[in-house]
């Protein structure tokens, strides 16, 4: 294992943590139209209030990791995906402002609720578009992006955008099913079922579409001589088992199972994406090794990262443990 492989593992881990941790609170925002009752929306907000802003730490870490460890990829991705990245950041900012102002500005609460919902949808959709564009590959010439400003708008990237939004809604609904009670709890159960159907349908379309985007993908999935091809057949099995776990949890009122099932469903798709991309960080021709900083820089950055990463992760585990259990509202 080389130092580049270690950094690939760190980057992949941080991205997945971001998707899981920020995914469910984005999902809560996506599900805001589920009710127009102010008290119920307050309960939805209260379920994520202690942890939502800290969850975005992993997005910052991912950006810093790309900038410091894989600077060529960072430069190309920002050049190619400048508009969706800016839209995502605006959505995050507007969402954060709406989160704070909806409590302080009572006369405009409906407006800020709409802003929180729209910001959440925009962030989720743009992250899906960025993912779809990356899977499709970006044209690179002489180390620079060679496409157009709107090259990221394709049917596949729009499909992945919708898939991520529905997936986040699934995690948000499963989170609400854990954290809330009464009417919101019942509505969350319905939302889990609807969003699971949409997510599973979207994941199926994307999975069937992806191999035909790139000859390398097609070879990886359908060349029977490749041993990894047989191992990767476990991915659709994991997806089905994840969906069954979610439905079993709902049926047996095992509160945490739908949430963990939604994480497993995302994990199955994420493993498939990593399998398709590796060894490229930006297909079809920029590999992780080509995009990496000099080995001396990677070596210098690694010890501090290996010390701080467990500390930050420990803080997140502790904070979620402290705020475990259902939301306590003023009327309780």
What level of helicity do the residues show? over 70%
Tally of extended strands? 4
User: Rg, please?
Assistant: 20 Å
Beta-strand percentage? under 5%
Low-confidence segments: none
Side-by-side strand order of the widest sheet: 1-2
> Based on CA inertia axes, which overall geometry fits?
globular
Major β-sheet profile: 2 strands, antiparallel
The quaternary organization reads as single chain
- Average residue-wise pLDDT: 89
Distance between the termini: 54 Å
What does this 3D model show about the protein?
- This protein is mainly α.
- 77% of the residues lie in helices and 3% in strands.
- The chain has helices at 3-30, 38-48, 52-55, 57-69, 71-80, 82-104, 109-136, 155-179, 182-209, 215-222, 227-231, 234-251, 257-277, 288-291, 295-322, and strands at residues 140-141, 144-145, 280-282, 286-287.
- The strands form 2 sheets. It has a two-stranded antiparallel ribbon. Strands 3-4 form a two-stranded antiparallel sheet.
């Amino acid at each position: 294992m080389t130092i580049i492989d270690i950094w690939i593992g760190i980057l992949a881990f941080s991205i997945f943590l971001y998707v899981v941790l920020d995914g469910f609170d984005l999902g809560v925002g996506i599900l805001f139209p589920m009710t127009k009752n102010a008290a119920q929306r307050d309960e939805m907000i209260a379920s994520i209030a202690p942890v939502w802003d800290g969850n975005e730490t992993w997005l910052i870490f991912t950006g810093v990791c790309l900038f410091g460890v894989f600077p060529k990829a960072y430069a190309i991705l920002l050049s190619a995906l400048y508009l969706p990245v800016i839209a995502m950041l605006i959505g995050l900012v507007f969402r954060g402002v709406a989160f704070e102002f909806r409590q302080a500005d009572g006369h405009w609460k409906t407006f800020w609720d709409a802003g929180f919902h729209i910001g959440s949808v925009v962030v989720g959709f743009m992250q899906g578009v960025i993912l779809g564009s990356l899977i499709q590959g970006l044209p690179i010439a002489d180390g620079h992006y060679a496409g157009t400003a709107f090259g990221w708008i394709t049917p596949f990237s729009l499909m992945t955008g919708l898939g991520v939004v529905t997936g986040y809604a699934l995690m948000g609904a499963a989170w609400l099913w854990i954290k809330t009670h009464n009417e919101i709890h019942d509505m969350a159960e319905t939302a889990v079922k609807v969003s699971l159907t949409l997510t599973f349908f979207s994941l199926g379309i994307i999975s069937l579409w992806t191999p035909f985007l790139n000859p390398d993908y097609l070879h990886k999935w359908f060349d029977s001589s490749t041993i990894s091809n047989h191992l990767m057949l476990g991915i659709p099995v994991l997806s089905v088992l994840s969906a069954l776990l979610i439905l079993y949890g709902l049926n047996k009122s095992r509160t945490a199972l739908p949430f963990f099932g939604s994480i497993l469903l995302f994990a199955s798709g994420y493993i498939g994406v990593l399998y398709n991309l590796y060894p490229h960080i930006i297909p079809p021709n920029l590999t992780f090794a080509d995009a990496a900083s000099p080995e001396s820089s990677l070596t210098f950055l690694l010890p501090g990262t290996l010390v701080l990463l467990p500390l930050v992760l420990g803080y997140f585990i502790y904070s979620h443990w402290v705020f475990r259990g259902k939301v306590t509202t003023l009327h309780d």
